[in-house]
Amino acid sequence: MISKPFWKNKKLDEFSEEEWEALCDGCGRCCLVKLEDFDTGEIENTSVVCEFMDQGTCRCTTYETRQLVVPTCIKVTPQNVAGIEWMPPTCAYRRVAEGKDLEWWHPLVAGEHESIITAGISVKGRVISEAEVSDDDLEDYVAEWPADRGFSD
Ligand code: SF4
Ligand code: SF4
Fold first, then answer.
1. How many CB atoms lie within 10 A of CB 92?
2. Atom of ligand 2 at shortest distance to CA of 70?
3. Is the CB of residue 50 below 6 angstroms from any atom belonging to ligand 1?
4. For residues 111 and 51, what is the distance between their CA atoms, to the nearest angstrom?
5. Other CB atoms closer than 10 Å to residue 135's CB: what's the count?
6. Cα separation values, 43 from 57, 63, 102, 124, Å
7. Nearest residue (CA) to ligand 2, atom 3
8. pLDDT digit string (tens) for the chain, length 153 residues
9. Distance CA 66, CA 59 (A)
10. What count of other Cβ atoms lies within 10 Å of the Cβ of residue 153?
11. How far are the Cα atoms of 3, 27, 68, 105, 110 from residue 88, in angstroms, in the given order?
12. 20 to 30 A from 8, CA-CA: which of 14, 24, 94, 122?
């Protein structure tokens, strides 16, 4: 049983497992393939997504074993979330870790999941699977996503 707004009343490491999982808005942006500039270390997003993401639901198809299946897939925890630089500014875990509230479009606030699509936060319908793109062509898919270059608050 989730008692809202738990994200304002508790610290991240006080969340129950159910609350932790519910905090994910399901945007799918953490599953985008990223490119890192070897010289500058700058990370750019693409419109290519991990082959294990279900593009209909934007959820992982191998969630329980994702770090085994995809060694570069990072399990977000209360301890590491603040240090994951490429986590999108819209990510609920990042926002709460930074002391911010959830936006209106977050399903826990809006009461439904369509809001992340109408707000343009979800990757749904805007990505291609990495299985369909060769590594040599990834640069052609560099893309900016909402708030990649800063967020209003
Ligand atoms: S970016 Fe954050 S909120 Fe969006 S799917 Fe990933 S973990 Fe969930
Ligand atoms: S393994 Fe799952 S959670 Fe990890 S990047 Fe791929 S789709 Fe996302």
1. 24
2. 1
3. no
4. 29
5. 8
6. 26, 24, 25, 22
7. 60
8. 788 899 999 999 999 999 999 999 999 999 999 999 989 999 999 999 999 999 999 999 999 999 999 999 999 999 999 999 999 999 999 999 999 999 999 999 999 999 999 999 999 999 999 999 999 999 999 999 887 654 545
9. 11
10. 8
11. 26, 10, 23, 15, 20
12. 122
Q: Is residue 121 within 8 Å of 27, Cβ to Cβ? A: yes
Protein residue whose Cα sits closest to atom 2 of ligand 2? 60
* DSSP calls for 36-64: E-TTT--EEEEEEE-TTEETTTTEETTGG
Residue carrying the six token digits 């990223």: 34
6, two tokens: 């738990």
> What is the model's pTM?
0.93
Tokens of 11: 């610290």
